[in-house]
């Protein structure tokens, strides 16, 4: 168990490093962005403030102090959870993000559940089956994996909202409005995950311990669920960097397409308005999510493979039987 | 006695190929039948067919295939599930890969109990401990909660056997149940299987090892190319084999009485064996510790000394973890000893660096257990040898001729040059490995379990080959093996290792006929011998 705690400790330390890097980077971006930050604060390129206003803003935001003082106070603010004030919305960035985060989390989680359920179910059902079954599943996966999610979204909208009229096309309230965006976001990911999972399952199903389990009189589904699936999950976990990235990146597009609230749309409008604090706040948030996901992934490995919980297996550790 | 299992004219094919071609046998109640054959003989596929797990795309036909009077060819999947584990127990070889590495040992047994007995969860937990105790696992309560890799090879195999007997089957099928085990552990597992048989169960043992079988079986069926060539009581088949193939199999088993003779039935090359020459390797009091993951240093090799002379074969025997391989790596200069020294041709590994060290490396070559793993699968034989000859500084224009010479030395020829490892048989691969080792004209070849992965008839050819090469070139062998029969046959002197120490060394005859150390005596007593039970 010590090993687990040590691992968590190291991960948190490394995570702090990553966040510090992201905070520093965001500071540098602000420093080296062409143009006067004070100009952006008072309303962007088109505003025509008086020199007095500029001077006041410069003093207020500490823009006249040396860079290292600004850097330290920037880090200090980030440490206190203060990500600055949005130039455009004139409210704290944390508040702007907080208002939108719920909808995105909802969408990402729903999509993750859909992607995992679909890929696990399809892989379990089709691994090491007849050639045409595997071929069909593999083809479908390739198709959805290579379809851009906005195109898939438009397709879903056309069929289910405009055609069949059974699901709403827009909005971010209620379960029904979540279904189409969640599938649009999940399907390409499910395609990739399903493919990886089936390959892994097919490899595991050849192992002697699977034959061994079958000779005990277990049903095929039991063998797959109880013995094979756990082994096949490892590559899925390893790929979590990919699919968490795909979920976050895909959310931006999906939210825009389905005119949902969320971080994605916040980010796009912030980029449009050159609202740097908001953009950087989202960057910092993404970095934080990656750190968290990596920690969870490492812990998941330990859950899946109990051999990793102890000291790595070595000849000296084998318990010799006194027989 | 009534037949529990009756097989008549069983034919198994995959696609157009036939792997089992009309075999018939029966297993009677309380009896042990052994199905013996080399790889590819169809014995394992026969065993799997008996539990309905022949594999994808197989066609199974038989005039009769009955278990306890039931026709197995007519069973549906659901009927099979009641038979597998419940009425026929199955033990596969090497429990490290036959038990789910991610599940606790007790869970695997529990699975059988849940499927085939009406026991409650609590009653099953008690039964698991009982079963583990029954197969001789100490501290069964603790072991049930451990993962397969936390158990030693012997305990794992016992746990696997416990899963096979948990459903109280009438018939146990064991496919190579002792192949991956050390000799003393193998003896214990064979005793356990014998005990199970005495409890009125029937046993079907699948094995390539006639000696193992002779300890356990009442009757033997010898398989070759999908047919049973000979079948009868053990003592009859082993003492007076009727078929040529059985005779050649028996003759190919290396042991005490085969020393100095040919195993493969081919004539010996002309000329006497050379007497041992100058010392080529001198290992002096080497010690090596490895720090374990728990931070505690563990001595893998302790104060080991020996010499090896030209044209001499010195064997190192010992069970897994005894330090054999570390000793070999130190002799090869691949592992630096903590103390002590190794001299090759009068030069110590510790005194040479850079170019000189590489030159010294050429004079000590190695042949490993699994030649497939030690070749790049994309290289042709020509490229494998060319590379070895280039390292040995043979000029480019001479290399092809030299490669053919080397191949002829190991009983192959120029036709094998364009082949890749997968296009060669196991025996041919090991011949190429020997040819590669000979490329720089080494003084010593370290043979690390060189025949462990081979069938007995191929093993016989490779052992004969090593002898031929030694007679022709005077190369010395450091021969590492867990198989005492092979060591007895092939070596002049032997070191017996246990826990990193040499407990006994001397001429093979002396060590094997009058062992002094108790451990050596235990090892020798555990050697499966070809004596009819």
Describe what you observe in this structure.
The complex is a heterodimer of chains A (323) and B (533). With 323 residues, chain A is an all-alpha fold. Chain A has helices at residues 2-32, 37-41, 51-60, 67-79, 93-126, 131-146, 149-163, 176-204, 208-214, 220-238, 240-257, 263-272, 276-304. The longest helix of chain A is centred in the middle third of the chain and has 34 residues, at 93-126. The radius of gyration of chain A is 25 Å and the shape is flat. Chain B is an alpha/beta fold and 533 residues long. Among the domains of chain B are: 279-363 and 442-526, Rossmann fold; 374-441, no CATH class. The mean pLDDT of chain B is 89. In chain B, helix 15 (381-391) runs parallel beside helix 17. The interface between A and B is large, with 35 and 55 residues.
Give the structure's gist in a few sentences:
The complex is a heterodimer of chains A (323) and B (533). Chain A has 323 residues and is mostly helical.
